[in-house]
Design goal:
two-stranded antiparallel ribbon; 2 helices; 9 strands; five-stranded antiparallel beta sheet
C-alpha cells in the first residue's frame, strides 16, 4: 500500500506542476502588449504651416518606432507634408526650426500641374520657369534653386486646385518672378529635396 500511495502522490505532484505551468503560459500569452501614447492628427493639417497646440490627440500603439510620442513639444514646429485626421505624426514630417522668411520672400500661385503635381514641401528647392505664348523661345528659366518656405493649396473656380507657394528670394529675383507671373504662366521644377 505504501508503493501505491507514493506513486499517487507523484502523479498528483506532476499534475499540480503541469497545471501551474499551463496557468503561467496562459497569463503570459494573454497579457496585453506594452503600449506607448503617440500624437495623431485630430483634424486635417496642411503642410508648411505652424503646428497648432490643439491639432493632435493621443492614441496608444504597440510599436511607436518613427512616431512622435505624446508629450513631445510641437509648438513652433512645421509639417513637411499634410496629415489627414487620424494619421499618426511621423517624426520625419516635422521641421524642427521655424523656417525663416528672408527679405524679398514672395508668394506665387500656380496650377497643381505646374508645381510638381502638388508634391512640394518646405525645404525643397525649385527652378522657376515662365512660358509666354508668341515668344521665342516660349519658355525661359528666370530663377534657380529657390527655397520653398511654405506650401498651401486651395480650390479655385470650377474646382481646379492651385498651389500657393512662398519662395525665399532676394529683391531682384522677386522682381523677375513677379514680372514673369503677370505676362506668362509660371512652372516650378524641383531640383533638390
Amino acid at each position: 500500500m505504501t508503493i501505491f500511495s507514493l506513486s499517487l502522490d507523484r502523479r498528483r505532484l506532476l499534475g499540480i506542476g503541469l497545471a501551474i505551468a499551463a496557468m503561467v503560459l496562459v497569463v503570459a500569452a494573454t497579457r496585453p502588449a506594452a503600449t506607448t501614447d503617440v500624437l495623431v492628427a485630430s483634424r486635417d493639417i496642411a503642410a508648411g504651416w505652424p503646428i497648432e497646440p490643439d491639432a493632435f490627440e493621443t492614441r496608444a500603439v504597440i510599436d511607436p518606432s518613427g512616431l512622435v510620442e505624446a508629450g513631445t513639444p510641437t509648438e513652433g514646429r512645421w509639417l513637411r507634408a499634410p496629415l489627414a485626421a487620424g494619421e499618426p505624426l511621423v517624426g520625419s514630417l516635422v521641421v524642427d526650426a521655424t523656417p525663416s522668411i528672408p527679405p524679398g520672400a514672395m508668394g506665387v500661385e500656380v496650377a497643381v500641374a505646374s508645381g510638381v503635381l502638388g508634391d512640394l514641401v518646405p525645404g525643397d528647392r525649385v527652378d522657376v520657369y515662365v512660358t509666354r505664348a508668341g515668344t521665342d523661345p516660349p519658355t525661359r528659366l528666370i530663377a534657380t534653386s529657390v527655397p520653398v518656405i511654405r506650401v498651401g493649396d486651395r480650390d479655385g473656380l470650377g474646382g481646379e486646385r492651385s498651389l500657393q507657394v512662398l519662395l525665399g528670394v532676394d529683391a531682384a529675383t522677386a522682381a523677375s518672378i513677379a514680372g514673369a507671373g503677370h505676362t506668362g504662366d509660371l512652372d516650378l521644377v524641383r531640383v533638390a529635396r
